[in-house]
């Protein structure tokens, strides 16, 4: 299924002169190191899944041959030359540390001589361009990132001089500069371009399948590829650590290009070629009860099997608000059709989905979704620029509100935003600007009006099981909680908590003795989104990146795929996946675009909803992240996104809204950044007014890891201690405090003090606690017998003695220095439980970076030093607690993610004294 998905999301952008697919008559030489070092995913939390195997492009060809697929001849000499060169130029992972992997790898220079030599044996050449990207580091407008390196350019130019035809494979995480394919130095020889993205464990296989014609490409772009980076409207306001003005407003991605500058588009949103051809005929359309339906007959008019995508675009009257000249309003993918085969596709969508949010009141309906008076037209498109009108137009005689709402999260900093000006003949508009409406409401009043009453006790004894069985409500259970229990339950712990599946990002819920004794299980959350990340080297399946999945335009396939991931989660005892990510691709430079789906909110939302539904098939739960506007990785913790209410509603919040309403999302992760001056994690209007009240979201909001909050009313300075503001805003869980510290004050946050001072009420914490209990009752953890608070780790296979000359350590002795680098031998004097604790440090200012040192005892992962960077401060931590029989044990520290320096390790008789570390800000 991964192979299938990875091939369905690959987008063929050019295919001239029968270049692809290769036939058995072809002789093909494949260049570029990434045919071997094929990127399977991006980096950071979303790309750190430990895979059992992965298939690169070279192996992909081999597999096809073994499957007896009719294959071209692949030039073994070229492949051999790459293998040899790679033996002295190994993959540079930047030492494997957090955000340290470079975004490209040094290439073997291909000289004219080498190219000519290969061309004497082969007739076609392929060059694989590889790029990765990831968390905490954006792409840069420089060679090796957004642009080709000199070596890549000169190598491809050599191939173009030697071969009659060259295909380029883009094994990339983000859109990168593609305009070069038409540069003079390539002599018009680049006949095929395939964006194969990063396809997970089977990415190279899927790419080989497409190149050789085992699979017919059916992917379509979910982002615009413009000629120049400067053509993207966000480029001017991207990447600073301060106020980031979203001046382009709703004109993000193709909305900008179709409205103002179609000539700047190299490959449009929605575009993608196939090896076959299709016809699409509208067989019927209607507009009834606010719902528009279109029936389209798709026919494969070519000679090979293939699938097509039906895209419906709307053209709304410009009215007083101004609109995108066209916007996608529905889509569907056909099944694979044989030559001559037809499929009738029926798609429908509510009028509400093409309504506009009026944030100024100019339509007469302030802060509401409106359909402005005028004629609405619809089109079938092979992409956003190639459209055929559907004979369905309807007139709205007078502007109507389809949903009456109220102001929320409006900007406070005035700025000018883009809007369409005068129209030209071709249906485009001049760029014009207007003042953005700013906040008029009193946030303090809104918050105090929403403060709940304290819960009263039911007067009977209630256990968590009663909530699960429906005999009691979450509120009734929470009413029984002591203050300490209330404060504990809103703190999640991690990373690598010993109370859940080892190696994952967090545990929350029943993580203290007292909450656990009420029958509340600890719930385990793992990254996400492309599989289960376990940082103790435990393996899991890696599926393709979000961008590739979106490019399949195949919602049922994505649901199916996540059904599989959910099954694996259930098997491994992971309750919650920290994904999907559905931030908008505002700029091609965002390092984390690979985790997200598209520049379009509808595609993003439909895909996110499919992920939620897929996971829930086996009871696993999704976390839709990062709410909201985490659209850049540089300065992600300090950046303040300054955005109009309209762009927020129509573009950036829309995917989350769809995931909640159509995917029944039960968890949302707030972002690190601020949105209009309030940190996302203490943003009352985002978390409560919009998400919970307006959308009816009944689940939990968790913070991103070690997030900071500021004052929900006045904004200002942010710190990770302001949990009072988080609670007040309706962000239910703080992720994460150090393991075993949730019932001991966590990081030393301000909740207790605020309660005492009356600036936080018990009732507000109860409200969050109730949401958490309800959520826990929905998890797979609640459906199983309660497991012990900490699984006892037992290592029984004691060695008789340490090898000759090895250093041994006995109770209380400290292993440090060189001893920590290799195998250490610890002597357990009797059968007992032992603590392994020590000191560690992680340098560097980025306190969000993650590094892990695992403690292996007799080859078995038994615990780890926590994952978070300490910002240079030496920290004491309990790494593992293990029951051992009397004897000698081999202990080894393994840096699954380097960066940490462990300075000492001591084995003591079990004292279980968790050590709370400070908050590094
Ligand atoms: C990321 C989240 C991730 C979390 C846990 C953070 O750095 O922003 O997306 O889920 O770490 O790994």
TrEMBL record:
<keyword id="KW-0378">Hydrolase</keyword>
<comment type="similarity">
    <text>Belongs to the glycosyl hydrolase 3 family.</text>
</comment>
<keyword id="KW-0119">Carbohydrate metabolism</keyword>
<dbReference type="InterPro" id="IPR001764">
    <property type="entry name" value="Glyco_hydro_3_N"/>
</dbReference>
<dbReference type="GO" id="GO:0005975">
    <property type="term" value="P:carbohydrate metabolic process"/>
</dbReference>
<dbReference type="Pfam" id="PF01915">
    <property type="entry name" value="Glyco_hydro_3_C"/>
</dbReference>
<dbReference type="InterPro" id="IPR013783">
    <property type="entry name" value="Ig-like_fold"/>
</dbReference>
<protein>
    <submittedName>
        <fullName>Glycoside hydrolase family 3 domain protein</fullName>
    </submittedName>
</protein>
<dbReference type="InterPro" id="IPR026891">
    <property type="entry name" value="Fn3-like"/>
</dbReference>
<dbReference type="InterPro" id="IPR050288">
    <property type="entry name" value="Cellulose_deg_GH3"/>
</dbReference>
<dbReference type="Pfam" id="PF14310">
    <property type="entry name" value="Fn3-like"/>
</dbReference>
<dbReference type="InterPro" id="IPR036962">
    <property type="entry name" value="Glyco_hydro_3_N_sf"/>
</dbReference>
<dbReference type="GO" id="GO:0004553">
    <property type="term" value="F:hydrolase activity, hydrolyzing O-glycosyl compounds"/>
</dbReference>
<dbReference type="InterPro" id="IPR002772">
    <property type="entry name" value="Glyco_hydro_3_C"/>
</dbReference>
<feature type="domain" description="Fibronectin type III-like">
    <location>
        <begin position="308"/>
        <end position="384"/>
    </location>
</feature>
<dbReference type="InterPro" id="IPR036881">
    <property type="entry name" value="Glyco_hydro_3_C_sf"/>
</dbReference>
<dbReference type="InterPro" id="IPR017853">
    <property type="entry name" value="GH"/>
</dbReference>
<dbReference type="InterPro" id="IPR019800">
    <property type="entry name" value="Glyco_hydro_3_AS"/>
</dbReference>
<keyword id="KW-0326">Glycosidase</keyword>
<dbReference type="Pfam" id="PF00933">
    <property type="entry name" value="Glyco_hydro_3"/>
</dbReference>
């Amino acid at each position: 299924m991964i192979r299938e998905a990875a091939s369905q999301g690959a987008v063929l952008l050019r295919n001239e002169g029968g270049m692809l697919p290769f036939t058995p008559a072809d002789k093909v030489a494949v260049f570029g190191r990434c045919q071997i070092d094929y990127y399977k995913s991006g980096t950071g939390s979303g790309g750190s899944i430990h895979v059992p195997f992965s298939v690169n492009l070279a192996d992909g060809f081999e597999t096809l041959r073994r499957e007896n697929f009719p294959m071209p001849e692949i030039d073994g000499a070229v492949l051999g030359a790459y293998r040899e060169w790679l033996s002295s130029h190994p993959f540079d992972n930047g030492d494997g540390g957090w955000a340290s992997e470079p975004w490209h790898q040094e290439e073997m220079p291909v000289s004219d001589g080498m190219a000519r030599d290969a061309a004497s044996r082969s007739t076609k050449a392929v060059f694989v361009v590889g790029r990765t990207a990831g968390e905490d580091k954006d792409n840069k407008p420089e060679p090796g990132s957004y642009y080709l390196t000199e070596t890549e350019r000169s190598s491809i130019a050599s191939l173009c001089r030697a071969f009659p035809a060259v295909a380029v494979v883009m094994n990339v995480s983000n859109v990168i500069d593609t305009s070069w394919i038409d540069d003079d130095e390539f002599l018009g020889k680049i006949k095929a371009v395939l964006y194969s993205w990063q396809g997970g464990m089977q990415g190279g296989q899927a790419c080989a399948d497409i190149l050789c014609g085992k699979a017919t490409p059916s992917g379509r772009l979910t982002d615009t590829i413009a000629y120049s980076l400067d053509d993207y409207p966000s480029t001017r306001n991207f990447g600073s650590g301060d106020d980031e003005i979203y001046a382009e407003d709703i004109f993000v991605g193709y909305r900008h290009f179709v409205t103002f500058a179609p000539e700047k588009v190299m490959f449009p949103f929605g575009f993608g070629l196939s090896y076959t051809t299709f016809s699409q005929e509208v067989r019927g359309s209607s507009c009834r009860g606010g719902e528009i339906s279109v029936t389209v007959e798709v026919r494969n008019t070519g000679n090979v099997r293939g699938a097509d995508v039906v895209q419906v675009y709307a053209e709304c009257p410009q009215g007083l608000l101004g609109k995108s000249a066209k916007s996608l309003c529905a889509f569907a993918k056909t099944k694979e059709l044989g030559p001559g085969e037809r499929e009738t596709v029926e798609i429908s969508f509510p009028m509400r989905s093409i309504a506009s949010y009026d944030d100024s009141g100019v339509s007469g309906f302030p802060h509401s979704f409106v359909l402005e008076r005028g004629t609405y037209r619809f089109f079938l498109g092979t992409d956003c620029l190639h459209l055929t009108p559907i004979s369905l137009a309807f007139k709205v005689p007078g502007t109507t509100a389809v949903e009456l709402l109220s102001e929320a999260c409006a900007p406070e900093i005035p700025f000018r935003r883009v809007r369409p000006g005068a129209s030209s003949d071709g249906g485009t508009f001049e760029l014009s600007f207007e003042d953005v409406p700013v906040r008029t409401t009193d946030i303090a009043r809104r918050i105090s009006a929403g403060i709940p009453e304290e819960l009263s006790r039911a007067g009977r004894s209630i256990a968590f099981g009663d909530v699960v069985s429906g005999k009691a409500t979450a509120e009734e259970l929470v009413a029984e909680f002591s203050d300490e229990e209330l404060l504990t339950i809103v703190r999640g712990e991690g990373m690598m908590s010993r109370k859940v599946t080892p190696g994952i990002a967090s545990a929350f819920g029943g993580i203290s003795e007292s909450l656990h004794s009420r029958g509340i299980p600890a719930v385990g959350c793992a990254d996400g989104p492309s599989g289960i990340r376990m940082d103790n080297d435990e393996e899991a399946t890696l599926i393709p990146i979000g961008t590739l999945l979106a490019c399949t335009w195949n919602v049922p396939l994505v649901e199916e795929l996540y059904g599989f991931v959910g099954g694996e989660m259930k098997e491994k005892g992971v309750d919650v996946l920290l994904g999907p990510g559905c931030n908008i691709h505002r700029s091609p430079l965002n390092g984390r675009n690979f985790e997200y789906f598209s520049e379009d909110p509808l595609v993003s939302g439909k895909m996110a909803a499919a992920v939620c539904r897929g996971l829930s098939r086996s009871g696993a739960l999704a976390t839709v992240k990062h709410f909201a506007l985490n659209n850049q990785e540089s300065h992600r913790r300090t950046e303040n996104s300054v955005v109009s209410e309209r762009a927020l509603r129509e573009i950036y919040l829309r995917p989350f809204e769809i995931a909640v309403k159509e995917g029944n999302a039960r968890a949302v992760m707030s972002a690190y950044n601020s949105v209009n001056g309030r940190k996302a994690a203490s943003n009352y209007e985002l978390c409560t007014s919009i998400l919970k009240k307006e959308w009816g979201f009944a689940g939990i909001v968790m913070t991103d890891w070690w997030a900071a909050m500021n004052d929900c009313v006045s904004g200002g300075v942010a710190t990770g201690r302001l949990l009072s503001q988080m609670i007040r805003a309706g962000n239910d869980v703080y992720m994460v405090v150090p393991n075993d510290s949730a019932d001991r004050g966590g990081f030393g946050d301000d909740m207790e003090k605020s309660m005492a001072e009356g600036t936080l009420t018990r009732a507000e914490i109860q409200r969050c606690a109730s949401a958490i209990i309800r959520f826990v009752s929905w998890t797979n953890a609640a459906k199983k017998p309660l497991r012990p608070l900490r699984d006892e780790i037992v290592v029984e296979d004691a060695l008789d003695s340490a090898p000759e000359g090895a250093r041994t350590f006995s109770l209380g002795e400290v292993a440090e220095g060189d001893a920590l680098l290799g195998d250490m031998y610890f002597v357990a004097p009797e059968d007992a439980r032992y603590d392994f604790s020590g000191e560690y440090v992680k340098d560097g200012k980025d306190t969000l970076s993650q590094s892990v040192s695992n403690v292996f005892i007799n080859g078995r992962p038994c615990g780890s030093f926590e994952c978070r960077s300490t910002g240079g401060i030496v920290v004491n931590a309990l790494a593992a607690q293990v029951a051992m029989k009397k004897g000698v044990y081999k202990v080894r520290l393994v840096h699954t993610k380097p960066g940490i320096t462990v300075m000492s390790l001591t084995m003591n008789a079990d004292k279980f004294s968790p050590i709370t570390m400070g908050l590094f800000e």
